[in-house]
Structure formats: structure tokens, C-alpha cells
Sequence to fold (222 residues):
Amino acid sequence: MLQAIGHILPIALAVAISSVPILATVVILLSPERSRTAIPFLIGWVIGIIVVVSVCTLGATLVPTPTGPRKQDDAVGVAELVAGLALLVMAVLEWRRTRKNPAAAMPKWLNTVGTLRPGAVFGLALLLNVRPKALLLAVAAGLAVVAEGLAVGQSAITILIYTAIAASTVVVPIIATLASPARMEPRLHSTQEWLIANGGAVTSLILLVVAFAVIGSGLARF
Fold:
């Protein structure tokens, strides 16, 4: 199980540092409705991570596996190579987009998040887990769990650890802000400004690191 946890740590970190959910969290926490919408967003985000990575883990068990020694490792290795290459392409595209549009600006749709009702915010948090980038990371995590041949209980614990790390950058600010809004508001403003200016570059770098980690894991299985 420890080996599986080691494989999912960089993937969970990539989810945690993803700028879109963090920016959405900050917008919600700076809105007048944060007392009504922050917790639904938190719950939706955590549930979304658990559901998506669990589905991807179950899906990874369906990877076609020819009979013969080490054939399961080979099949998972091929799947990891595909997922890693897809993440690599996404990292390059994100970097090119950032270089092409260096001007710092909040995505227009994020500006409306603070006006949403609790139910809509909950749904948004779920939907953020099915973005292409989030799905690829969940697929990589699911493959890492399945590759180690864990029992159901061990797989569940690994997924919960993954979720705790991946959701931490949403959960911690929400809890801290609801507990002490006056102290957190200046930090939220500075975080928002920094992410708008640097979020794309950070995301592309993290995706690049994870892509090579997943590719390396896939190659090691042959």
C-alpha cells in the first residue's frame, strides 16, 4: 500500500495546486454569501474527488490483460504511458496558452461564482472534477492504485489519502475563513492576485512533473 501511496502523492499534489478550484474557492470566500455557499462547495469538491477517482480506479481494473507472466503489469504500464503522454500534451498546451496570453485576468465565468446559490455551487464543485485535466489526473491515480493489486480496504484508504491531499487547498481556506474571516480576507486577496498572474505557469509545471512521473512509472512496469 505504501508504494501505491507514493505513486499517488505527486498526482494528488497536482490536483491540490490546480488554480481553477482554488480561485473558485477564493471568489466564494470573498463574496457576501460565503456563509451559505462555502460549505456546499467544500462538500461537492470532496465528494467529486472521491467519486471520480473511485470510478477511474474501478475502470482501471477493466484494462484488457492478456494471459501470461507480467502481462497485467504490461497492460497497466501501457495505460500509464498513454495517460502520462496525454498529461504531457496538456502541460505543453497550458504553457503555450500562458505564454500567448500573459496578461493577468480572472476567467469571466469565475467572476459569477460568488453570486451562485448553494445548490449551484455544490454542482459546480462536482463539475470541476470532470474537467479534462482533472479526469486525466484521476485516471493516473486509479492506475497507480490498481497496479499494486491492493485489497478493497487498502484501495479505499489510499483513495481517502489521495482525497485528503487533493482537497486540502480548498478545505483549509474555507475552514480558516469561516473561523476567522477578518484575518483571512487580506490573504485571500493576495492569493487571488498571485494565482491570476501565475496560475497558468504553475499548473503547466506541475502537470509536466506529474506527466514524467506517470510515464516513468509506466516504463518501469515493462
Summary: Residues 181-220 form the longest helix (40 residues). The chain has eight helices and no strands. Helices lie at 2-17, 19-29, 34-60, 71-100, 118-127, 132-147, 152-179, 181-220. The radius of gyration is 18 Å.
